[in-house]
Here is the input.
Amino acid sequence: MTRIGVVVFPGSNCEYDAVAAVTALGAEAEFIWHSETAISGFDGVILPGGFAHGDYLRPGALARFSPVMAAVESFARDGGPVLGICNGFQVLTEAGLLPGALQKNRGLTFICEPTTLIVESTKSVLTRGATKGQELVIPINHFSGAYTCDDETYRSLEANDQIALRYKENPNGSRGDIAGVSNVAGNVVGLMPHPERAMSTLLGSADGRVLLQGFLYAPALSR
Amino acid sequence: MNFPVIVTVTLREGIADPEGATIERALPALGFTGVTHVRAGKSFRMSIDAPDEASALEKATALAERLLSNPVIENASARLGATTPGGVE
Here is the structure.
């Protein structure tokens, strides 16, 4: 059975949503406390949303120095699928596992609303089950979600097909309407929207399923 | 010896600064005209144990680049401050 590790930092608050989503799709999930120095036996790792270490200094700035991050880094280096959602995305950029940075939203407001995303690339472990151009309704819930990078980085993101998802209508000032990016290999991916909160039409949308399904059950996972 | 050090972190040139822009837009309404190029940033004060000024600043610069700033979007600079009864100024 596919087994997913969900990293919990002091201040994470979406870890139960992540576990619920993973188990709803038939996989197994287990928490990994941030002080762990080794992770093993997992087919994938999720860094959930929240406010790791209170988001003090900058979102993700302190979390990247949590002991578990060295283990996440080596898991990622070995090709292991790593997904950062919202705060988890911020942690991955601070750790240098993903390019760019997340800045305060244009307009300086906390935004909590459904957004329409467009699948831009199916190369990443998150979007490999979707189709290019597919529209997905998935909620965002953040204050620092404006994706930022320099011109050179932006050009390489486009050249290497690393832009996984874009907003149909830019809610926060993200460069190039970017909602999610991956590393060059595609096994590390981060996004500001919350696919784990879009698991049921009864609760607004089930469009998160195609993303998480892809993350859980793609061939690369049967390592 | 302990040296008082002030580290300033600002957004890199060309990086959008919604806080600075909002402050700049608010100023005329309060009667402060002619204020432009407002950029928001952060300032950190600390006391650093080091053999001399140069190594205190070197240490401050290193920790500013590693932790206090995100080099992807921010610049950090360290300078000597003054020790006061309340800490470092």
